[in-house]
Design goal:
By secondary structure, the protein is mainly alpha-helical. It contains 1 helix and no strands.
Length: 153
């Protein structure tokens, strides 16, 4: 029986040796896989650093662009306000001009009769002036004829 005991212990030792060999192969395979995963993670880390750097630069440019747009928007708002003020001024000027035109039209309408009388009196005055000048000229011609007759005698 001792032999069976030795054989059993030897068989257990061989089985344990086979188990250790398979576990060793599995662990070596697992080590290769973990090394590959580690290398992949290192590559991903480098790529992530690059992406992070590019994202930071892009974010800075975006912030600068947003600031620029904000400044230009504020300047544009002042231009829009100025144009609005010009429009209001022009509108008020047009209203004032309409009021003046209406007032002038009303005064002209009210003064039509007076203007008509002034025109008539002006025509009469011009006719009298023409007649007076004609009379003055005829007197001057008459006195020139008398002078010529006096000289002729």
């Amino acid at each position: 029986m001792e032999i069976i005991l030795y054989l059993s212990v030897a068989l257990i030792a061989i089985a344990f040796l086979v188990l250790v060999i398979y576990i060793s192969k599995t662990l070596k395979s697992l080590q290769g896989t973990l090394t590959s995963v580690s290398n992949t993670l290192t590559g991903l880390e480098k790529q992530l650093d690059g992406v992070t750097t590019e994202t930071t630069v892009l974010l800075q440019k975006t912030n600068a662009l947003a600031d620029d747009i904000q400044q230009k928007s504020e300047r544009l708002n002042s231009v829009v306000e100025a144009v609005k003020d010009v429009g209001t001024t022009v509108s008020q000027f047009n209203g004032t001009l309409k009021n003046i035109t209406n007032t002038v039209d009303q005064q002209v309408e009210e003064s039509k009769e007076k203007i008509s009388q002034i025109v008539q009196w002006s025509n009469i005055f011009l006719e009298l002036k023409d007649k007076w000048q004609a009379r003055k000229q005829s007197k001057a011609e008459g006195s020139t004829e008398e002078r010529q007759k006096v000289r002729a005698h």
